[in-house]
Write a structure and sequence with these properties.
By secondary structure, the protein is of the alpha+beta class. The protein has four helices and 13 strands.
Amino acid sequence: MKKLITLLFIVTACSPAKKENQETQTLSSVVEAVTSLPALTDSQKAEGWKLLFDGKTLNGWQIFKARKNNTWEVKDGLLHCKALNETTKGDGDERSDLMTTDEFENFEFTCDWKISPKGNSGIIYRATEEFEQPYYSGPEYQLIDDNSYLPKPTDKQLTGASYDMYATAPKTLKPVGEWNSTKIVVNGKHVEHWLNDQKIVEYELGSSNWLKRKEACKWNEAKGYGLASKGHIDLQDHGHEVWFKNVMIKTI
């Protein structure tokens, strides 16, 4: 009797109905992945928007200073920075920022992003390869776990801030693990940071207020900080897991 029951279980597990169901589920997963690829609407195309990430490849992107790196990947249609794995930290795991191959002068940049618990990253704009790190040239739109990151960030180091320069206005930030939407507007010396359709930072590069803040923060000795008239969009690898999608830009 036991042998008969076992045989019936094997036949059922390998039945055409189950195989067909598995194939249907696999096909559904493929269709879902394809339909979730980023695409511009007709109105966005008419306005001049351009996708920076196609959801399939890293075409249009490069590693800062062509350094060794194995942490950026395309996974499930998302641009993904892997978390630092302590077990492989000293075993060839190289980390560096990912930046656009193109440079941009005046633009609107948008993306959706989410970060891991206690995570830290950022979006650096008008970044150049003149210096040892991209943040010595371009200002940074901070991305971070505001509530749990340690050491505790200052107000000028929280999500949406111009890192170490300008704190944000009151904002609506979705919890860690959920998608937030960012927009950065750079037009000449005028800069705006937006979060979830709300403007939270606004400043003028090179203004007396900006120079005063620069002299009083960590960028005091960064001679090229904020001076480039054009540069790359740079996604920061800070050793933590972060995801990006719907990455696009419009020149102005």
